[in-house]
Design a protein that fits this description.
Elements: E1 14-25, E2 28-39, E3 43-47, H1 54-61, E4 69-74, E5 77-78, H2 84-90, E6 92-94, H3 107-116, H4 125-138, H5 154-167, E7 172-176, H6 184-201, E8 204-208, H7 212-218, E9 221-226, E10 229-234, H8 236-240, H9 243-250, H10 252-255
Helix pairs in contact: 3-4, 3-5, 4-5
Length: 260
Amino acid sequence: MSHNNNPHFENSPILLKGEKVSKLFGGLVAVKEVDFHILQGEIVGLIGPNGAGKTTLFNLIGGLFHPSTGAIRFEGADITALKPVQICHKGIARTYQIVRPFLKMNCLENVLIGIIGRPQREKSKKKEEEEASEFLRFVGLGGKERVMSADLTLIDKKRLEMARALACGPRLLLLDEVMAGLNPTEINQALELVEIIRGQFKITLFWIEHVMGAIMKASNRIIVLDQGQKIMEGSPERVVADPRVIEAYLGENHAYGKGN
């Protein structure tokens, strides 16, 4: 795809690039020869039906799995075989589809994990705690520093996970279904937070989402996977109207106007 399809970012450097990335689990092909790129400053959505390979692709980028074939580069450097902690130190952080706070820690301690995990640390414990409090305030959890993460509501657990990911100091943030399980008001709050993260922290975002209205509204570009393969890529307007995408979600009859 030409970068001109996304004119706002056409002069931006490529931050993340995958070439012919595949992942096999035994005989099952979870991801098949997927090419992708993320430009600096973009919000790129990754969509597709259940089982399309979206989270597997994130796990490959984050180092949880290694590709069976293909290569992944971040800022031009090959990260294909790196471990998750090495990839985090390079500047990639993520959230998870199923929220994973440290349940026996309070909110402040959860965010401190992100700060402590950075490759460079020059601050005192007091300064680190002040910074962790600032991240909590930023995501809307101000005043909840001492609340145990196990006692938070679902949206607040998602906010906490976002704060912990931001505390790692990433240049690229992978968001895995941050809207799942939220009501319409909470979805709007989460969308506002996504926009602020991009604007205030200058972080590039690559995110998986099933809430189509949200991802179409917030993304500059959408990549569509189906059965492990990339079937479409382009602006939200082009993607949502594409017969291949409609067929992947709704079946052939809907895609070609044969449905009721």
